[in-house]
Amino acid sequence: MNYTEVLKMGFSLNWSARDCSSCERSNAKELRDGGFGTVYYGILRDGREVAVKRLYEHNCKRVEQFMNEVDILTRLRHPNLVSLYGCISRTCRELLLVYEYIPNGTVADHLHGDLAKPGALPFPTRMKIAVETGSALAYLHTSDIIHRDVKTNNILLDNNFLVKVADFGLSRLFPTDVTHVSTAPQGTPGYVDPEYHECYQLTEKSDVFSFGVVLIELISSMPAVDITRHRHEINLSNMAMNKIQNHMLHELVDPSLGFESDCTVKNMITDVAELAFQCLQYDKEMRPSMVVVLEALKDIQHKDYIKDKEEINISADDVVLLKNDPVPLSPDSALNWNISTSSTSNGSC
C-alpha cells in the first residue's frame, strides 16, 4: 500500500482513521513517545496487532520524514527489520504509519529501562541481539541505505527476543557513485558519529559508530548518555574507550553477566569490547564495515572458548617443562611459542 492509498484494512483504536484529530482525545494505548511521533497500539479488522505511528506535526519536514520511511520500508525485506503494513492517505490531516506490532519493548527497556532486571538478559541473549541487529544493518548498507539513528530505543524485541530494527524517518538512500553525503547532523546524542557531527559528511561508517555504542550498552547495561556520571563519562562511548584503553574493562561490564566468574563469558565480552573499540574510532576510515563487524560477531558467538582455553593451558605446561630443561630454546622454538600465545590469548582467563 503506497502513500496515496487509504488504509482500507482499517484498525480498531478508540479513534477513527477518518478523523485523525481525535487521536488527542482518545484512550488508545500509547506504546512509546519518540522524537518524531507517538506510537499507539491497534488491531486490524483481520485481527492482526499493529503499532500505529502518529507524526507530531503535519509540516514539510514531517511529510519528508513520513515519505522517506514509507519509501525505504516498502523496498526492504529482512527478518530483523520491522514490517510496514500501510499508511494513511493524503486526505487525512494527520500522518500515520501502520507497522507490525512487536510486543516485548526495546533493548533499552531491558538494559536500563522499565523492563531491566538483574540477570534477566543473560549474555548469550545479548549476543543474539547484537548479531541480529548487525545483520539488519549490514543488509541496509548492502542495499545502499544508512539508518542514521541506530540506538537501543530503535531495536525492538518480540517475545522470543527476536530483533526488529525500527524507525527509518532519518534514514537516507545513499547514492552509489559517491563516497559520502553532506547533510546537517541529525540523530540522538550519545550515538552520533563525532566526525559526522564535525564535518557534516554522512557515510555508512556513521551507523558503525552508533552500533559500537549499542555493543557497549549490551555489555555494560548503561545508557548511552547519563548526566549523573562524571563529566568525562557522561557519554558512554568516551567512558568505554577510556576503560578499554586502560585495561579496566571489568569496571565497565555489568556484574550480573558473570564476567568475573565465567571464563567463557569473560573472553566473549572482551572480544565484543575490542570489536566495539574498533567501531568507536574517531576516524571513520579506521572503523570496520558493518559486514566485517557482523562476521566478527558471528565468530565470537560460535567460537569454542573452552577448547581454546585447554590449548593455552597445554602450551603453558610445556613452557614450565622447557624452563626446567638445561637445553636453551632455539630461535624457531621461541618464535613458535610467541605465535601460539598470540593466537590463543583470547581463549584464556
Task: Provide a short characterization of the protein structure.
This protein is α+β, with helices and mostly antiparallel strands and 349 residues long.
What does the model show?
It comes from Castanea mollissima (Chinese chestnut). InterPro entries: Kinase-like_dom_sf, Prot_kinase_dom, Ser-Thr/Tyr_kinase_cat_dom, Ser/Thr_kinase_AS. This protein is of the alpha+beta class. The protein folds into three domains: 20-100, 2-Layer Sandwich (Phosphorylase Kinase, domain 1), CATH 3.30.200; 107-303, Transferase(Phosphotransferase) domain 1 (Transferase(Phosphotransferase), domain 1, Orthogonal Bundle); 306-347. 40% of the residues lie in helices and 12% in strands. The chain contains ten helices and eleven strands. The strands form four sheets. The protein has a five-stranded antiparallel β-sheet with strand order 1-2-3-5-4, with helices on one face. Strands 6-9 form a two-stranded antiparallel ribbon. Strands 7-8 form a two-stranded antiparallel ribbon. The longest helix has 20 residues, at 123-142. The chain is globular, with a radius of gyration of 24 Å. The protein starts with 29 loop residues before the first strand and ends in a 5-residue tail after the last helix. Residues 1-27, 175-184 and 321-347 have low confidence and may be disordered.
